[in-house]
C-alpha cells in the first residue's frame, strides 16, 4: 500500500502547525520482573497532563520483532515505509556526519587498513587507529584528483572515513573492495551495471592515488571501500504532504535524515531549551517541526536506567514552552525502544502520544508503555503516524466520495 | 513484505532455546452470552503464573474473518505467509498421513467411486465404503507398474486414498479427474504445462491399470484423482532463521507440516508427558522445539466444552516440566480457534503468550481470550510470531544502521 499516493491526492493546506517530538530510543523495559520502565518511572507531570487530553498508541517501527537502526526508525516516523526505502551504508554514513548528498552522488564507507610488503591486508582496521591520528589522513586524501569528478573525503571515527564521488551518470551498484579477511589483497571495485561501472572505475582510480598518498604510514597504508550507495530517492515532505517542514536536531545523523526528506535544518541549538528557542523563532515559517532529542537513546545504550529516567524528566520539563506555541497537533514518540536492560535498540513498540482538539482521547491519565498498548491508536506501524498527524491537523480530505 | 528476507539478513546464532507450544484450536467461545470460553473456564495455575511474567497478544492466523485449516494455521505460526505459501490438497493429504514428499513428487488425493455398466459414476464416494474395506484396496493398487515411475499408494479414511508419483521432470499443474457429478464418466487428467502433461500421462496410466484392478468390486470399481500438487517449496528453518528445529508431535499431519519446513521429527511420544520426555532428551541438540497438542482441537470439533476445558487443564499440568528446562523464550499459542460452540475451526484470534526476560510484561495476571486482545503484543498476524520469538531470544540484529 502506497501511503504517499493517498497523501498526494488528499492533502490540503491550512494554517495548522504540527510538532513531532522524537525522544530517541524512548521505549524501555523494567530492570526486574514486576518493575517499571524508564518512562513509567520518570516524574513527568507535563506528559501525563497531555495523556489526559490526548490519545496513545504503540508504534511498531518496522514490524513485530524487528529492531531498527536510526535510519529506518526515522523513515518510519516520517511516513516512509522502512522496508521499501533503504538508505545504503555509504549514504547513511555520509548522512550521519552531516554531508548533504545530492542526487547522483555515490558514497562509500572507507576503512583504513594495514597492508604488508606483498600488498596483502594484515589488519582490516589499521590497528584501530585513533581518531586524532586518522582524521588528518582524510584531509590528505582530498589531494586525489580525478578529471571530471568531484571527490569529497570526510573523516569518521577511528579507522573509518567517508568518500563521496560526484560526476554525471553514476550509480552505486558497486561491490565492496573489502575482501573481509586478512592475508588477502583489497579487491577491485566492480560495477554491476553501466553507471555503476563508471563509479567503480572512479573508485579504483581513487584507491590507486589514495594508496600512494598513504604509502609509508605505519598502520594506515591501505584502504577498503564498502557500502557504495547513491542518495536514496525519497520524495519530499513538500511534495507528499504539502508541508513546509523544519528539523531541529543537535546531532548530524538526524539533521541528515531530515534533509533526505526535504526538511530544512533550523538553527544550531545544542540544548533542548535552545531547540525550543529555534522552534519559537521559526514558528511562523513552517507547518511541521521535527525536534530530535538524543539522550533517551544514549543513556539507554549505556544501560543507565536512572540517567535515562532523568533525561525523560528533562524532556518533560520543556513541554510547557512548546505547548505555549499552541501547536494544532503535538506528537511525542520515539524512533524505536532502547531499553537500558538490553543496552541496545529493540523491537518493542514505542509509546506514542498524539494531542489535538479532535484526537478522541482514550481516557488514560499517564503516558507509558503499558498505557500505550491499550491506547486509542492501538498498535500501529510507525509509517502511519504522518497520516494521523495530517488528519488531526485538518490537512487531509476524505478519500473517495 | 518478505519477512524471511529480513530474518535471513539479520539472524545471529547464540545458545538460546525457543519453545513453541501449540495447543491446536486453543481459542474458544462462551456457550451462552456472558459466559466464559473454555480457556477462561479451565483451572490453569501454571498458565496464569506465566501470564504474570509474560506478554499476551491475539494472533490472527491469516487475516480477520478467515478460519484456516491445519496447513495454513501452522505455516503462519512457523512464520510462512499462509497466503503466499500454499500447500496443495494432494500434498497436504500426503503430508497428513506422514508421507514424506520429496521435491519433484506429485501427489493427488484419490476417491474410490462406483461406476455403472456404462462407465458412468453412480456414487462419487463408493457408498462411503468403510476404512477397513478400503484400506486393502490401496495396498492392491500398489501393483500398478509404470516404467520409470515410482508409484506410492497410501490408504486414508473411508473412500479416500493418496497416490504419489515420483519421476524426473514432473509438476502438479494437473486438472482433477473428478467430474463433480454422478451420471458422468471420470475425466482424463490434463496437464496445463509440459512437466504437468507428463504427470497427467502417468496419472492416466495409473487410472487405467487401477480401474482394471478394481474391476468387479461391488462399490469401489472406479476412482477419481483430485488436488494434484507438488511438494510446496518452503525454505527451511535452518536457512531462514538459522535454527536447528525439532518437532514433537503425535499425529502425522503435524509431523508432516513440520518436516516441510525442515524440522526434525523427534521421538515417538504418544502422551503429553512423553512429549516432554522427548524434549528433555533432545534439549541440547536443538535451538527450537515445536510441540503439538491435538486434543484442544478435537474436543472443540466435537462440541464438547467440558472435555476441552479438561484438555486445557491437562496441558497446563505439564508446563512446570517444560519451564524446568529453562527455555529462553516460551510461547503458548494455537494454530487457530476451535470453539466448542461452533464445532469447527474459526477465525477468532488465538490467545498467545510469550515469556522471556525481555518480553515487556503487560500486567495481565491470567491467560485467556479477553486478556490476549488487551495484551502487549496487540493483535498481530501469526506470521510475525517467529520474528518476535527470534528477537526475544537475541537472535536478530537490528535492521539498518
TrEMBL record, chains A, B:
<keyword id="KW-0324">Glycolysis</keyword>
<dbReference type="InterPro" id="IPR017850">
    <property type="entry name" value="Alkaline_phosphatase_core_sf"/>
</dbReference>
<protein>
    <submittedName>
        <fullName>Cofactor-independent phosphoglycerate mutase</fullName>
    </submittedName>
</protein>
<dbReference type="InterPro" id="IPR042253">
    <property type="entry name" value="Pglycerate_mutase_ApgM_sf"/>
</dbReference>
<dbReference type="GO" id="GO:0004619">
    <property type="term" value="F:phosphoglycerate mutase activity"/>
</dbReference>
<dbReference type="GO" id="GO:0006096">
    <property type="term" value="P:glycolytic process"/>
</dbReference>
<comment type="pathway">
    <text>Carbohydrate degradation.</text>
</comment>
<dbReference type="Pfam" id="PF01676">
    <property type="entry name" value="Metalloenzyme"/>
</dbReference>
<feature type="domain" description="Metalloenzyme">
    <location>
        <begin position="17"/>
        <end position="390"/>
    </location>
</feature>
<dbReference type="InterPro" id="IPR004456">
    <property type="entry name" value="Pglycerate_mutase_ApgM"/>
</dbReference>
<dbReference type="Pfam" id="PF10143">
    <property type="entry name" value="PhosphMutase"/>
</dbReference>
<comment type="function">
    <text>Catalyzes the interconversion of 2-phosphoglycerate and 3-phosphoglycerate.</text>
</comment>
<dbReference type="InterPro" id="IPR006124">
    <property type="entry name" value="Metalloenzyme"/>
</dbReference>
<comment type="similarity">
    <text>Belongs to the BPG-independent phosphoglycerate mutase family. A-PGAM subfamily.</text>
</comment>
<dbReference type="GO" id="GO:0046872">
    <property type="term" value="F:metal ion binding"/>
</dbReference>
Amino acid at each position: 500500500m502506497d501511503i504517499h499516493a493517498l497523501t498526494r491526492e488528499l492533502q490540503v493546506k491550512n494554517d495548522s502547525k504540527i510538532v513531532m517530538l522524537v525522544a530517541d530510543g524512548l521505549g524501555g523495559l523494567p530492570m526486574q520482573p514486576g518493575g517499571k520502565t524508564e518512562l513509567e518511572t520518570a516524574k513527568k507531570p507535563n506528559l501525563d497532563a497531555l495523556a489526559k487530553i490526548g490519545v496513545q498508541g504503540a508504534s511498531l517501527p518496522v514490524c513485530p520483532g524487528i529492531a531498527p537502526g536510526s535510519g529506518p526508525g526515522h523513515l518510519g516516523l516520517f511516513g516512509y515505509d522502512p522496508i521499501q526505502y533503504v538508505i545504503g551504508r555509504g549514504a547513511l554514513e555520509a548522512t550521519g556526519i552531516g554531508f548533504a548528498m545530492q542526487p547522483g552522488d555515490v558514497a562509500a564507507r572507507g576503512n583504513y587498513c594495514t597492508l604488508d610488503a606483498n600488498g596483502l591486508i594484515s589488519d582490516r582496521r589499521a590497528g584501530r587507529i585513533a581518531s586524532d591520528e586518522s582524521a588528518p589522513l582524510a584531509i590528505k586524501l582530498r589531494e586525489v584528483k580525478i578529471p571530471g569528478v568531484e571527490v569529497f573525503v570526510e573523516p569518521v571515527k577511528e579507522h573509518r572515513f567517508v568518500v563521496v564521488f560526484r560526476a554525471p551518470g553514476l550509480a552505486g551498484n558497486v561491490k565492496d573492495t573489502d575482501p573481509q579477511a586478512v592475508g588477502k589483497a583489497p579487491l577491485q571495485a566492480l560495477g554491476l551495471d553501466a553507471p555503476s561501472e563508471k563509479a567503480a572505475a572512479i573508485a579504483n582510480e581513487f584507491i590507486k592515488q589514495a594508496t600512494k598518498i598513504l604509502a609509508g604510514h605505519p598502520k594506515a597504508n591501505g584502504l577498503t571501500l564498502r557500502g557504495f550507495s547513491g542518495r536514496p530517492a525519497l520524495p519530499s515532505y513538500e511534495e507528499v504532504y504539502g508541508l513546509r517542514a523544519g528539523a531541529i536536531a543537535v546531532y548530524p545523523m538526524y539533521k541528515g535524515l531530515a534533509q533526505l526528506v526535504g526538511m530544512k535544518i533550523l538553527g544550531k541549538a545544542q540544548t533542548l531549551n535552545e531547540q525550543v528557542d529555534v522552534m519559537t523563532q521559526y514558528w511562523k515559517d513552517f507547518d511541521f517541526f521535527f525536534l530530535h532529542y538524543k539522550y533517551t537513546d544514549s543513556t539507554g545504550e549505556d544501560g543507565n536506567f536512572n540517567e535515562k529516567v532523568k533525561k525523560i524528566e528533562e524532556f518533560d520539563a520543556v513541554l510547557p514552552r512548546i505547548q505555549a506555541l499552541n501547536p494544532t497537533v503535538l506528537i511525542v514518540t520515539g524512533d524505536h525502544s532502547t531499553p537500558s536492560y538490553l543496552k541496545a535498540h529493540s523491537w518493542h513498540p514505542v509509546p506514542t502520544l498524539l494531542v489535538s482538539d479532535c484526537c478522541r482521547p482514550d481516557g488514560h491519565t499517564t503516558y507509558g508503555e503499558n498505557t500505550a498498548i491499550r491506547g486509542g491508536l492501538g498498535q500501529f506501524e510507525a509509517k502511519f503516524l504522518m497520516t494521523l498527524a495530517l488528519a488531526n491537523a485538518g490537512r487531509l480530505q476524505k478519500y473517495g466520495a
